[in-house]
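Late entry, evening session. Most of the bench is empty. Finally got around to the prediction I had been postponing all week. Sequence below, unchanged from the version circulated by S.P.
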Amino acid sequence: MTLSLTGCSYLGVGTASGGPRATTEAQAAMARPMDPLARFASEAAPGSSGAVTLASGQTVSAFLLRSYNAASGRECREVQYGQASDTRSQVFCNNGVQWVAARPLLRGGAVARP
């Protein structure tokens, strides 16, 4: 809860801690549409699945593998997506403004996947 409040005060308009630059960056991030897989990651609970239409127009199956807190303190979620014969996974983390794609630190992940 403290981290959330700190993040909110950081984004305040013209505050000493956030300043105009932080506000401009936050507004720019909010103006960008969220990636469809990132949106799925932000809304789904671990173990949930659903159909996601990618920016390319292709519809894929998506499965939220896990949710965890990164060393940075950000909440991250791993999504597995694709068709039956070709699946991939992507990590998304909440940067305080929206969910964004992030690189996993370890190849294959640190936790056994289902």
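Two things to note before I forget:
Residues 59 and 86 are 13 Å apart (CA to CA).
The chain has two domains: 1-31, 33-108.
Will write this up properly tomorrow.
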